[in-house]
Amino acid sequence: MWLIVGLGNPGPRYRDNRHNVGFKVVDLLAQKASAGSFKEKFKGEWARGVLSGTDVVLLRPATFMNLSGESVQAAMAFFKVPLERVLVVHDELDLPFREVRVKVGGGAAGHNGLKSIIGSCGGADFVRVRVGIGRPPRGATEGWVLGDFDMMESAELAGVLQGAALAVEAVVQGGPSAAQNKINVKPAAR
């Protein structure tokens, strides 16, 4: 079993923010996994399904980003999922928009949701699917991550989310190393 966590902030005010790509990817995965409707528990919303022949629990923490670890830890304990079988989908400032990467472990790189999970769940050795949102042209990053995608980004967002969902499926199907070899390949320069 995998616990697949999409990071974001709850409520309609934040729905289309860059910070909420994790929620959007988990929503896509719920359809692919025939997970049915989400239920409230674990300080979040969760659903259970099957992805690539493997049981998965999908989780959208409702604690707001900075306390995501509380929700993740509660779901891990209930389903008895070890840290290495937790996969977190999150926005990534250090990747250009459109890029998706798979990573295992590492620091939080200033991401408060990751900081909370590392602090609450006993370490950083979980799998991450990093969805690039790029850095703001200038100014503070808080306004950027809590801002909505612009019109050009919005036109391409469905493909980016689909790519992130495929990265999650690759991890579930073949493990993190195989997924990294498949997903983290840069396209050849033209």
Give the termini separation: 41 Å
Please count the helical segments. 6
Largest sheet: 7 strands, mixed
Task: State the secondary-structure class.
Answer: alpha/beta
CATH topology: Rossmann fold
Uncertain stretches: none
Number of domains: 1
CATH class: Alpha Beta
β-strand amount: 15-25%
The average pLDDT value, as a whole number, equals: 93
Number of strands: 7
Instruction: Estimate the global geometry from the Cα principal axes.
Output: globular
Provide the helix percentage: 25-40%
The CATH superfamily appears as: Peptidyl-tRNA hydrolase
CATH architecture assignment:
3-Layer(aba) Sandwich
What is the C-alpha radius of gyration, as a whole number of Å? 15 Å
As laid out across the biggest beta sheet, the strand order is 2-3-4-1-5-7-6
What letter string, H or E per element, gives the SSE order?
A: EHEEEHEEHEHHH
Q: Can you offer a commentary on this structure?
A:
The structure is a single chain. The N and C termini lie far apart (41 Å). This protein is an alpha/beta fold and 190 residues long. It contains six helices and seven strands, in the order E-H-E-E-E-H-E-E-H-E-H-H-H. The protein has a single domain, classed as Rossmann fold, CATH 3.40.50. Helices cover 37% and strands 22% of the residues. The longest helix has 24 residues, at 151-174. A hairpin with a 2-residue loop joins strand 3 and strand 4 (54-61). The protein has a seven-stranded mixed beta sheet, with helices on both faces.
